[in-house]
Amino acid sequence: MNRRWHYFFCFSVLYPILALAYIAVIYGSKIHALRIVSISPKENSVPMLPPLPPSEKGILFQKKVTEKVSPKVVSTAVPQKLIASGDKPYLPLGEIAKLLQLKILIPMKNGQMTMGKGSAVIQFTQGQNFITYQKSKIFLAHKLIIRDRALCINYEDYLQVLVPLLAIKLIEGQTPALKTIAIDPGHGGKDPGAVNPRLHIFEKNINLEIAQRLKTALTQCGFLVLETRSTDVFVSLEDRPAKVNKADLFISIHSNASTDPLAHGLEIFTLKRAQAYRANAFDPWNLIAAYSILSTLSQNTCLENRGVKMAEFAVLKYLSIPGILIELGFVSNDDEAKKLMDPLFQEKIVQGLVEGIKKYNANLGKR
Ligand SMILES: [Zn+2]
Fold it and tell me: Is domain 54-170 annotated with CATH 3.40.50.11540?
């Protein structure tokens, strides 16, 4: 190819093609970049925040909202002043004092408030998820909060804890009977429960010994007694409620364990409130039974009172009667494990249990 043809070819064919290809590449990449730019802010953008609930502005809740959270088993006058925090309604304690005829013994100071009814004293502290009722901690589903300068309790906790403890007559439905008591010694057979390897103590044996002593004591008091096991055998968690669902009160007896060898004290569990189990129909009665028995048990044994707590224990879920689960003390704590094995101490436990069952019965009688 001569030089003239070479220039002609470069300027009229090759360079225009290269220029067009260059423009196409740049334009294409810009489109691609634009696409990224236009999408990414959308994907990474902060989602729209929901509007503040009316309560944050101090507006009163409507009756409709309160009906939505009311458990079926408890009735009470619909409070005039409900305050929302997040999506949950709360009640100022001053309002509760009016509703349940409580005396304000110590007005709110530093997030604490003390109220009373008769001889009962109840303490409330901001940020805590329990109240102290007659020296027993009663655990709540929600923490106590301050809103509009008032100490407030979650409305559900008010219905499920304060109403049963302080206004038992407001609980709807039939009062449970108390003639037959079901005793459920935890674990057994192939399942030893908690073990203290230093002292060779098995939880299943402590539970069974206390259960046998309790059976004798309750029978002497005129109660009928059913048991889920009376020997060292394995019974599944599902079979236990089924065996004794014709009783009037279910008491599961356990001993505790912790990785902390110093952990000590007794605690009583109820089924977690407001869940979807059949046994939740008995939530107020479970709480009254747990509190009644914890108070006399801690008095009789002088073990530390760790409070009334909630859990979704399988053995409590499928009950068709009120029921509680007692953790008598810590097998993992050498001092407490020795006490739990001592026949004299076991008698103190049994005495506390019997007095507690009688106290529960007396509370039912207030209806
Ligand atoms: Zn256990």
Answer: no
> Ligand 1 mean position to 187 CA, how many Å?
6
Going from the Cα of 204 to the center of ligand 1, the distance in angstroms, rounded, reads: 7
Beta strands in the chain, from DSSP E residues, in sequence order: 83-85, 88-92, 103-109, 112-117, 120-125, 130-133, 136-139, 145-147, 150-154, 180-185, 195-196, 201-202, 224-227, 249-256, 266-271, 305-311, 323-330
Q: How far is the CA of 328 from the centre of ligand 1 (A)?
A: 10
| Cα 185 to Cα 215: distance, rounded to the nearest angstrom | 11
- Centroid of ligand 1 to alpha carbon of 265 (angstroms): 14
If you measure from the C-alpha of residue 329 to the centroid of ligand 1, how many angstroms do you get, rounded to a whole number? 10
pLDDT per position in the chain (367 positions), as tens? 556 656 655 566 656 555 544 444 444 433 333 222 222 332 332 222 233 333 322 222 222 233 333 344 455 555 668 888 888 899 999 999 998 999 999 999 999 999 999 999 999 999 999 999 999 999 999 999 999 899 999 999 999 999 999 999 989 888 999 999 999 999 999 999 999 999 999 999 999 999 999 999 999 999 999 999 999 999 999 999 999 999 999 999 999 999 999 999 999 999 999 777 989 999 999 999 999 999 999 999 999 999 999 999 999 999 999 999 999 999 999 999 999 999 999 999 999 999 999 999 999 999 8
Q: Where are the domains of the chain?
A: 1-45, 54-170, 180-365
Residue 248 CA, ligand 1 centroid: distance in Å:
22
Calculate the alpha carbon distances from 337 to 55, 130, 189, 256 in Å.
50, 28, 20, 10
**324 CA → ligand 1 middle, Å:** 13
Distance 235 CA to ligand 1 centre (A): 13
**In angstroms, what is the span from residue 228 Cα to ligand 1's centroid?**
14
The rounded Å distance from CA 325 to ligand 1 centre is: 9
CA of 255 to the centre of ligand 1 (A): 5
- Which CATH number is 180-365's, of 3.30.70.141, 3.40.190.10, 3.40.50.150, 3.40.630.40? 3.40.630.40
Are 154 and 82 a contacting pair, CB within 8 Å? no
